[in-house]
Design a protein that fits this description.
By secondary structure, the chain is of the alpha+beta class. The protein contains 3 helices and 7 strands. The chain has helices at 2-22, 33-36, 42-45; strands at 48-54, 57-62, 65-68, 72-73, 76-81, 85-89, 94-98. The strands form 2 sheets. It has a 4-stranded antiparallel β-sheet, with no helix packed on it. It has a 3-stranded antiparallel β-sheet with strand order 1-2-3, with no helix packed on it. Strand 1 and strand 2 form a beta hairpin. The longest helix has 21 residues, at 2-22.
């Protein structure tokens, strides 16, 4: 009985070791992780969540941190804090972070008045 239990346990251990090396059985055999890994753009890494304005000061909440005009964030310098967006600049490019998506979705109603 003990010998059978040891045989079953060693067989299961061999099966687990074999399948761990096999990876995902639904993945194509020539697939590699490096083919599908995409680097996030600076705009995807920096998320503007809030603009705070009072008196003559403006602040931008980016990735949970408060920044003001001239601050550096993610390799960029904040050059403008506007009502609904922040413009950042580095030596190579200018980046705009917006509070709202430029893709405005509308609902189409067929056969009657819009609701």
């Amino acid at each position: 009985m003990v010998k059978q239990a040891i045989t079953v346990i060693s067989g299961l251990a061999a099966l687990v070791a074999f399948t761990a090396g096999a990876g995902d059985p639904t993945r194509p055999h020539d697939w590699s992780a490096s083919q599908t890994v995409a680097t996030a753009t600076a705009e995807e890494q920096l998320q503007l969540t809030q603009i705070i304005a009072f008196a003559d000061k403006r602040y931008a909440m980016i990735n949970g941190q408060r920044y003001q005009l001239g601050s550096r964030v993610g390799g960029y310098r904040i050059v403008a804090i506007e009502n609904q967006r922040v413009r950042l600049q580095n030596a190579d490019q200018e980046l705009q972070l917006s509070l709202f998506s430029d893709d405005i979705k509308t609902r189409t109603v067929t056969g009657g008045e819009p609701q």
